[in-house]
Here is the input.
Amino acid sequence: DVDEESLLPLVDNRLLDTNGQVNIESIYYNSSLKQLWIGTVESGVFFYDVERRKLVSIDNQQMRFNPILTILPISEHLLFVGTDGAGAWLIDQKELGVLQAFRQQEGIEFTLSGDGVYDIFRDREGRVWISTYSDGVNILDFGRQGFQILRHEKNMINSLGRDHVSSILEDTHGRIWFATNNGVSIFNPLNNQWQHILDNTNVLAIYEDSRGTIWVGTYAKGVYRLNLQGRVLKHFMRHGNANEIGSNFIYTLLEDSNGDIWMGGKKGPISKYQVKEDVFSYIPLSQANYFVM
Here is the structure.
């Protein structure tokens, strides 16, 4: 409950318990179909019908034994699922089945550059961007064959900063932001120019709010608040004082209906930052990988 800052159960734990120990890694909620998709660490993908309170496991052995790191809708009925070790999978939300797998295949052109998929993003033109653990970013245009691959080019500042990309964002101006293990790379498709900021920072999450502010979650360095030009407006870190961010390890960011920013991760409680009041409050949950609205 956003206003009460309290935790309410959504999926009956007894349903999850019937499938053995289930550790949740990622989620996606389809509000129109009232469907919750749950990605796990070692149990594959589950579909939960909120109205019927029915939990179904997606039967796919290759997905089952690889952590599900990201779930993204690309159309009303299609989902992309990214795994740590088994590539990306296209799922039909209505039929609850796998339509196509995208895997790395050595020596074969136009295949995925790596099977460790950290984030999947769909841009305004309908292209799907798939970020990998250490193999750059794969761009899938359904009107063309195979993938276009973005990688870091040695001694080339006008390229992706690092090949390890955790998150991708398209801002209101159409520029693409990449969270890497050495800062943020910003690509302007209008002039094919790159900008690099926050060097020596392991960036895990990037989010743009309704005010056009960019929020950057990091590993061990808290959260940066930026403008659309990439200038740091404020840096939130936990030092053990009052009215601070709950953790310096931030994996997920989200703006709620009140305009407040939620920050979740590990090694500390979830933080809710009331932007107008410049005040933090906390939810006593020690780990949060994903927020959904």
Observations:
- The chain has two helices and 24 strands.
- The chain has a mean pLDDT of 91.
